[in-house]
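queue> holo job accepted (S-adenosylmethionine)
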Amino acid sequence: MLSYRHAFHAGNFADVFKHVVLHCALECLVRKPTPLLYMDTHAGAGRYALDGHMASSAREADGGAARVLAESGAPAGVGHYLAQIRSMNPPGRLTHYPGSPEIARGLLRDEDRMVLCELHPADHAALAALFAQRPRTQVLASDGLAALKSQLPPAERRGLVLIDPPYERAEEYRLVATALPEGLKRFATGTYLLWYPRLPGDAAAPMLKRLGNGLSAPTLRLELALGPAGDRPGMDGCGMLVVNPPWGLEAAMREALPWLAAHLGRRGARTKIEWLVPPRAN
Ligand SMILES: C[S@@+](CC[C@H](N)C(=O)[O-])C[C@H]1O[C@@H](n2cnc3c(N)ncnc32)[C@H](O)[C@@H]1O
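queue> job finished
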């Protein structure tokens, strides 16, 4: 059963973190002229009205995207993401927030292909309508982790795969820990972004341990914690593994993440940028 709806959370701190990393990674990749595949295994609805009936009571974006939009002096990686958010909103207001497929569409070229998987019927229908006019785009009502098998390797031999499950079932951590290395076997040079929550009890730890031991490609671990460990209930931080990070991403993150921590976090907010699997020395 799919109970998670991303519209309740759109634009929150976790979206800002995830979408800044995604934006920067794609910016690095599109510097090369050759076409690529963008695959989103858990794509959501693609775009969210923040005054819609699902978001209005919560407005999680007020502690996320709205907060960073009000700041000046953002480093380039964050600034380009903010410019994309501003371009789809009235001046000085945040009424709509882009999901990961829309963030990606803003950076991709006409020759780049998109494969977007979304299982929730209503979100799939919204996503299919939003991308109906884009050539070279498939919107699949398929299990995104299973689709890694059918879609990889891409004909382009270049690409980025975003894996962004809701983790509403504990087994999703285990499924991801199996699917990502299998995807990497099929498409060894691809860039993979895997988002995970930081929760009390550290539910993601066994998955990260398995991936740290099992992945065969350089993997960067990025994290944002909004405050000191354990002083708040619920999700108080999140992270992203970046397998085969494109050149330039690590440097961009060293500027972007401390800025995000300073503007989204509390006293004691922290960031982590380290190699889960270091690049092999030549
Ligand atoms: C965290 S949200 C995705 C947010 C989106 N990636 C973004 O950044 O805007 C996770 C989405 O995955 C969908 N979903 C859950 N299980 C899925 C599966 N096995 N395959 C594809 N989509 C799934 C949910 O319906 C939900 O819309």
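queue> The first helix runs from residue 13 to 29.
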